Amino acid sequence: MKEQRQYRWICYGILCPNSQAIKYVGISCDPKGRLIAHRRAARRGERTAFYDWLRDIIATGKSPKLVELQSGTGMESASDAERHWIEVHAGSGQLLNRNPGGVDWNPEAFRKSLHYQSRANGAEPKRVRCLTTNVVYDSIRECARALNIDDSRVHQSLKKGYRCCGRQLTFEGMDPVKTPRDYKSRRGPTTLGMRREPGGLPPVRLGT
Q: Which among 104, 157, 158, 192 has the fewest CB atoms less than 10 Å away?
């Protein structure tokens, strides 16, 4: 029988910056990443009471805060923790969760929340090398903290090959992703500084 992987999870609450009340309770291996995903979903127009509230908060220029409620390992204990904290804060009348939480109401959604980061699947975080400074970071998160930026910016830089804060990043042991500027143009020789002749004749260099 295959041994069940023990996930490291955090039960988190999303705090209203105005009332300081907990508006949402969730479970994830990366609460910060989940909050970013929630913000993106709100901007896409997801229609729930929570996302309507989140859009209103974002529109005022404020940001909701995260608070860690409980942490542990294993899917069963994560399920129990999420249900418990939803019940605790539901009595305030401020909570916007649609469901009672836990693995019972939606096993697939619950598992996806625990698979949010690659390390939740048992994989070690990939090391990131800065080709500009030749510094190696143990993970995307460590690189983002060193550059004082969001994790998503480092991820996009690695994925698309763009410079991040003036630095060229790549995963350790891998070549950097090529950007469109790295490829040779398929349009043929440049016509910069040349005048195009009428009738489809070849361009003539100016000054000749």
A: 192
Sign of the CA dihedral running 160, 165, 170, 171: negative
Among 72, 69, 75, CA closest to 89:
69
User: How far, in Å, are 101, 121, 180, 202 from residue 140 at the CA level?
Assistant: 30, 16, 24, 51
Q: What is the pLDDT of residue 6?
A: 56
First to last CA, the chain: 81
Helix (H) or strand (E) holding 33: helix 31-44
Classify domain 8-121 by CATH number: 3.40.1440.10
What is d(CA 95, CA 111) in angstroms, rounded to the nearest whole number? Answer: 22
Residue-wise pLDDT tens digits, 73-116: 877 788 889 999 999 998 888 999 988 876 654 555 555 555 54
Task: List, for residues 187-204, the tens digit of each pLDDT value.
Answer: 444 444 455 545 555 555
Q: 140 with 158: CB under 8 angstroms?
A: yes
- What are the sequence ranges of the domains in the chain? 8-121, 128-181
Query: Could you tell me what percent of the chain has a pLDDT over 70?
Result: 68
Phi, psi dihedrals of residue 81, rounded to the nearest 5°:
-65, -45
Contact indicator for 70, 11 with CB cutoff of 8 Å? yes
| Rounded distance between C-alpha atoms, residue 14 and residue 31, angstroms | 9
Q: CA 157 to CA 165: how far, in whole Å?
A: 10
